[in-house]
Amino acid sequence: MKVLITGGAGFLGQRLARRLLERGELAGPNGRAEKISTLVLLDVAAAPDFGDARVKAMVGDIADRAVLEQAIDTDTTAVFHLAAIVSGQAEADFDLGMRINLDASRTLLEVCRARGHRPRVVFTSSVAVYGGTLPDVVEDDTALNPQSSYGTQKAIAELLLNDYTRRGFVDGRVLRLPTISVRPGRPNAAASSFASGIIREPLNGETSVCPVPRSTRLWLLSPRRAIEALVAGCELDAAVLDALPGNRRVINLPGISVSVDEMIAALREVAGDEAVKHIRHEPDDRIVKIVGSWPGRWDTSRAERLGLRGDASFVDVIRAYVEDERK
Amino acid sequence: MKVLITGGAGFLGQRLARRLLERGELAGPNGRAEKISTLVLLDVAAAPDFGDARVKAMVGDIADRAVLEQAIDTDTTAVFHLAAIVSGQAEADFDLGMRINLDASRTLLEVCRARGHRPRVVFTSSVAVYGGTLPDVVEDDTALNPQSSYGTQKAIAELLLNDYTRRGFVDGRVLRLPTISVRPGRPNAAASSFASGIIREPLNGETSVCPVPRSTRLWLLSPRRAIEALVAGCELDAAVLDALPGNRRVINLPGISVSVDEMIAALREVAGDEAVKHIRHEPDDRIVKIVGSWPGRWDTSRAERLGLRGDASFVDVIRAYVEDERK
């Protein structure tokens, strides 16, 4: 089988690629494991060389139908659609966000539909689909009420994936990811970038600005668990998914609910007072507004019934980051 | 000021046009009433001649940006976007539904945005955005979970209108209409067509097929009240709307919750046993599935706070139909 990862040169895309290459197989249409013969990594930038003959890096515009037609054929059993314009950037550049987060997602679904073989499509969504006055714990059936263009575009793509699945065009699965922390690398344009920055930069002896109040509650997932969930989400049996109550093809992944204060305490536990001193507190209204509209916790009973797990504690998350990224 | 009605040759469009011409004015951007100088009725078919110099009938494809650019200029203070592919047809022809219910709505918003004058856009949505396991009474914050392509497309257009409003591109208002009954004319491809047919046809001495069980509960609104709500929805002050709790630019209009049995009893009261004998009961699984996924009642406290009213009883609805359409 072939597998496609859009956003395959990105942080999660590369991690997922590495995991799939290690496994060497993935559940096929009948639920039986099949060998992965080709892993296509499509992105606007070239993915690094994996030194693996199965990997085929493709550079192209994901909103261009011809590019997607080249990337997807009837052997493409699984598509992980990770490519996205992040929240801060989609708010700053409305047209770009619409083009990538909405149009490209729809074109991807259309190309899958045209192929006619009903591939599994795993689509990552976000806390940002929620907003407004929220209950303390967001349930699977809490209304979508995005307060950002990013959240709007993700909510729309979710609705499309559900309808394309209902009609039998694809076998879709939407995984709503908590904010991923700790991401390696540099800050990005996501409004939630600080959720990694205030841990990562201090561990590197660099200053990091925290733009939200210390009481702000975040809903976090480590990269390790995110990759596990993506693979498990793809392998879930369609019948098991359809037997779940609620909005059936959308799964809120388990996270941990942590305040900024608690994140800082965890950093202190792992790396001491010196590290914590690198965090500067400078509230930024634009970010407070976006991040403040997201839920700090959601009900994950459906995910748990499917065997999807979150992290044990934020201290563990930091330790895993140190292990994975700072060897 | 100019006013645009898309779907202006349709049943609601024509009714709304007549009402606006009678009124002669509409609240402008500052809330003060302004004279309507031009009323553009855009549709795929020509609207009938209103014998009124203010009316400008335009025939064109609403998904064609050039057509919308011709229909909307910076004097267009209000847009009533009624054009749509109905539920049954959007289910039968997926691409057509996407093109009109989604792409045309988005293009309309884009043209308004490009004009830069932030017109009021009144968009009609539907019970069909809800579905799945529903509470007895649907609240404004009940999750969107459409079980049809029509409902999906309407839900997406709602999300777009909210975001375009939040960003200041338009001043949008989504009115979720109950099923309109009694519609005049002939049956159409809406899954809910029978909700008018089982009253209208018997009153004409014709047979009508009821495709759902008699216990099916519908959420109905008369054409008179629908037109009142469209005008009032357009004239609502943006500040009043924004002060409401919940998903602020979406308003569930008040309906009456009536079972098919109760509809038939009302018909008997108005037109006697002879009329009722014209109803044949032949369940149609395709329609039972779509209609059965819609809520039979929703919470309308927000609409009521805005002064929007439903009908007093279904007997009154039938009597109003006879008065308006069978003179």
From TrEMBL, chains A, B:
<keyword id="KW-0119">Carbohydrate metabolism</keyword>
<keyword id="KW-0560">Oxidoreductase</keyword>
<protein>
    <submittedName>
        <fullName>D-erythronate dehydrogenase</fullName>
        <ecNumber>1.1.1.410</ecNumber>
    </submittedName>
</protein>
<dbReference type="Pfam" id="PF01370">
    <property type="entry name" value="Epimerase"/>
</dbReference>
<dbReference type="InterPro" id="IPR036291">
    <property type="entry name" value="NAD(P)-bd_dom_sf"/>
</dbReference>
<dbReference type="InterPro" id="IPR057326">
    <property type="entry name" value="KR_dom"/>
</dbReference>
<dbReference type="InterPro" id="IPR001509">
    <property type="entry name" value="Epimerase_deHydtase"/>
</dbReference>
<keyword id="KW-0521">NADP</keyword>
<dbReference type="GO" id="GO:0016491">
    <property type="term" value="F:oxidoreductase activity"/>
</dbReference>
<dbReference type="InterPro" id="IPR050005">
    <property type="entry name" value="DenD"/>
</dbReference>
<feature type="domain" description="Ketoreductase">
    <location>
        <begin position="1"/>
        <end position="216"/>
    </location>
</feature>
